[in-house]
Design goal:
By secondary structure, this protein is mainly α. It is built from ten helices and no strands. The chain has one domain. About 85% of the residues lie in helices and about 0% in strands.
């Protein structure tokens, strides 16, 4: 079931990018940064692969992704600033963000300040929710978007570059096919375990707390 979900998510992301081009990249990363867990680790490597195929430009992929990140982050920041912590706590469950996640991110933000945004933009999962505590804390908007831009530029370039290089190796190095088939099962199992843990920690534990 989880393997099918991962495959469907990956196919949906690829279809959006294939059909929408750069606009698809902007839309997907805007959703990702607004709190909807669509992994950039799928969006950017596939976009990088399309760079290798000649459909995209690497620089434009990174820039369009960063624009989408800022759009989505502005929405999440606004929700945090206007609704405060109670609103995020009340509706965060709809995007699989638990109170524990919010506590952890708010704690990092309180301890390390604005630099949390820069670092958080380069961390899986964290990047999806890092704008909420910034909004709650009313971090200066210009600084927020500067750190968001710098962090996402670095992270998105790395992901897209890896996708581009893997795409080139896939077409020129026969060993890539052998390695892929050899480690495919390991990758699928690792992803399945990761998704299962994420869902359990954000849904099952939340239900148990509500039942207490």
């Amino acid at each position: 079931m989880i393997e099918k979900f991962i495959a469907l998510l990956g196919e949906w992301v690829k279809s959006v990018i294939s059909a929408g081009g750069y606009k698809g990249i902007v839309a997907l990363l805007a959703l990702n940064s607004s709190g909807i867990p669509i992994p950039s680790e799928v969006i950017l490597p596939f976009s990088g692969y399309l760079v290798h195929q000649g459909r995209f430009n690497l620089f434009l992929v990174v820039v369009m992704g960063t624009i989408g990140c800022n759009i989505g982050s502005a929405v999440a920041y606004w929700i945090g600033a206007k609704g405060g912590r109670p609103l995020v706590e009340r509706y965060g469950k709809w995007v699989l963000m638990s109170n524990h996640d919010l506590d952890r991110m708010s704690g990092f933000f309180d301890r390390y300040g604005s630099i949390t945004i820069l670092i958080g933009r380069m961390l899986p999962i964290v990047q999806t929710y890092v704008a909420f505590p910034a909004g709650i804390a009313r971090m200066p908007r210009l600084r927020f978007h500067i750190y968001t831009t710098v962090g996402s530029l670095i992270w998105y370039f790395c992901l897209a570059w890896v996708g581009m290089k893997l795409g080139a190796a896939w077409d020129t190095d026969p060993r890539m096919h052998e390695w892929f088939h050899r480690f495919h099962l390991i990758v699928v199992v690792a992803l399945a375990v990761g998704v299962a843990w994420f869902v359990w920690s954000h849904v099952i534990r939340a239900r148990r707390r509500d039942a207490v």
